[in-house]
Design brief:
Elements: H1 2-15, H2 22-46, H3 51-64, H4 69-82, H5 87-100, H6 104-126, H7 132-216, H8 223-253, H9 263-268, H10 276-285, E1 290-295, H11 303-323, E2 329-335, E3 339-346, H12 351-357, H13 368-378, E4 382-387, E5 393-400, H14 425-431, H15 435-467, E6 469-471, H16 472-477, H17 484-490, H18 496-499, E7 514-521, E8 530-539, E9 542-552
Parallel strand pairs: 1-2, 6-7
Antiparallel strand pairs: 2-3, 3-5, 4-5, 7-8, 8-9
């Protein structure tokens, strides 16, 4: 029972897709009553005697048209081929099928089968009065106009609505992505500021600390002056600690986006390789024993590489002053064929200096070497740092002349990010088609088909009138008593569509004879409501009677 209940629930949901709000229920009920009443009225006018059955059937099919578009189209086409009542529903069924059947070939198949059913029921009903060929042509043209054209327009409307929905969703997604890109740009800028604060201010504070340490051991100062210098040095160390805490907070709040390079770096105005000599002189002025050497042929550097080299030297000197005060320092810039090598080494810190500082351990936020490695990575280089056999420390960076990432960060998603995988923008543009294009092709095909049928109908009508009429001179030449075969070779082949109304009219048919009727052309003095008829009657293979008479409309 549960399986039956689930199957029934699934069938109902398929046939009557929701949501069924009160407004929709009222609208569907009113429209179903109107369509059923109109179908019943048409059947009453035609006198078929099936007004009530057709009216009820049309009401039920109208309600089911959205959930079962293909079956409703087929049943409606079969009914419309037999009677006139379901014709308005055929328009609605074609519209709904075009809008709701997603697959193109399923839609084409539904319309083809619908036309076959429409034609078969028409042939079954009109076979006695019309030729099957004429019914076939008329049914094709009528079905194209009444069912296929509304289906094409319904499909166009549905595809246009789907396209607008997709564009609206894509626009909303692009807006969201733009907000994310702006947020990431802010984080990158925050990270860049934090890194510059760490590199620049940290270096200056380290120099202050070195100067203060040198003054503390100056024998020319009084005890009070040395105490003041010690307070100054402790303040510098505290400032360095607070600076690293702030930089750490900025790093944590960002998404670890690498610091900006390229144009952003150039805007900082902190110098490049030319500024290394200034860093060396500042350290030397603070009392450090430091040397600078350059090797190789100097060459111009990209802005990102130039800035990275300056920052690497600055951070290396800061670390040397902080962790090995009083040790000798060596700075080397080597221009290799494919890269710039920056090397900063320092020896072991003298024991005397470490004993007299008294300011606690050196402050380290753990951001210096990480930032240097990121700077080198952005320009396609690398950084190596580690102790030397002489218990000193060495930092070396290899910076290619052509930076790997000049922008420092990927830009926002562009138009190519929306292309299907494996397609170029040109190929994707060729694959995209406007929803109106397919419908326009369909409408053009239907229009050409209907035009062709119209031309064929005109030609067939003219040919049919020629086959169903006899000229007056020919009628006069045919004599009673002539063999039937000879008369039939002389007469046109006839057409019951035009001469069916002539049967049973005129003088009494001779006993045992079978007759053929034709319209008579070329009779002078015919009135607008008069039809001249020619009748030929045969018996035993011979023409036994020939009559000419007038039928009045």
């Amino acid at each position: 029972m549960e399986a039956i209940a689930r199957a029934w629930d699934t069938a109902v949901r398929t046939a009557l897709p929701g949501p069924w709000r009160p407004r929709r229920v009222v609208g569907e009920a009113v429209l179903a009553l109107v369509m059923g009443g109109f179908a019943a009225l048409l059947e009453l006018i035609t006198g078929s005697g099936l007004a009530v059955p057709f009216g009820l059937a049309v009401m039920v099919l109208f309600v089911l048209r959205k959930g079962l578009p293909a079956p409703v189209l087929l049943v409606t086409a079969a009914l419309a081929g037999w009677a006139a009542g379901p014709l308005p529903l055929l328009v609605c069924a074609g519209w709904t099928a075009g809008a709701r059947i997603r697959r193109v070939w399923s839609l084409v198949g539904a319309f083809v089968v619908g036309w076959v059913l429409f034609t078969m029921t028409g042939v079954l009903k009109e076979a006695a009065s019309l030729s099957p060929k004429l019914v076939l042509g008329l049914s094709l043209g009528f079905f194209l106009l009444v069912a296929v054209l509304p289906g094409l327009y319904g499909r166009y409307r549905a595809q246009r609505r789907a396209l607008l929905d997709a564009l609206r969703e894509r626009n909303e997604q692009l807006v969201r992505e733009r907000v994310m890109v702006v947020h990431q740009a802010r984080l990158r800028e925050r990270h860049r500021i934090a890194q510059d604060m760490h590199d620049s201010l940290g270096h200056q504070l380290a120099l202050i600390s070195v100067h203060s340490g040198a003054l503390e051991v100056d024998r020319t100062l009084t005890d009070r002056q040395r105490e003041a210098v010690g307070v100054l040095r402790q303040a510098a160390v505290a400032a360095m600690r607070e600076l690293r805490e702030v930089v750490g907070v900025l790093h944590d709040e960002s998404t670890a986006v690498p610091p900006a390079t390229g144009a952003a770096a150039g805007a900082s105005g902190r110098g490049g390789v030319d500024g290394v000599e200034g860093l060396v002189e500042s350290s030397r002025a603070a009392g450090a024993e430091i040397g600078l050497s350059r090797e190789g042929e100097r060459r111009p550097l990209p802005a990102a590489v130039d800035h990275a080299a300056y920052r690497i030297v600055q951070e290396a000197l800061t670390n040397a002053h902080k962790h090995a005060p009083g040790a000798s320092i060596g700075v080397a810039l080597r221009y290799e064929p494919d890269a710039l090598v920056v090397e900063v080494t320092n020896g072991r810190a003298p024991e005397l200096v470490g004993a007299r500082t008294g300011a606690g351990a050196a402050v380290s936020g753990g951001q210096g070497l990480t930032g240097l490695r990121e700077r080198a990575r952005l320009v396609g280089g690398m950084v190596h740092a580690g102790p030397t056999p002489e218990q000193g420390f060495r930092l070396a960076a290899v910076l290619p002349y052509e930076g790997a990432e000049q922008d420092g960060a990927a830009g926002p998603a562009g138009a190519e990010d929306w292309m299907p995988e494996g397609l170029t923008p040109v190929e994707a543009g060729r694959r995209r088609r406007s929803p109106a294009l397919g419908c326009a092709i369909g409408v053009g095909t239907v229009a050409l088909t209907v035009l062709g049928l119209l031309v064929w109908g005109v030609v067939a009508f003219v040919q049919g009138t020629n086959d169903a009429s006899v000229a007056k001179p020919m009628f006069d030449q045919i004599k009673v008593g002539t063999a039937e075969a000879e008369v039939l070779r002389t007469l046109p082949r006839g057409n019951d569509f035009f001469t069916d109304t002539y049967k049973g009219s005129g003088p009494e048919v001779p006993a045992g004879a079978h007759c053929r009727w034709y319209g008579l052309d070329g009779v002078p003095g015919s009135g607008w409501n008069e039809e001249h008829v020619a009748r030929f009657c045969f018996r035993d293979g011979v023409l036994v009677d020939k009559q000419e008479y007038v039928m009045r409309g």
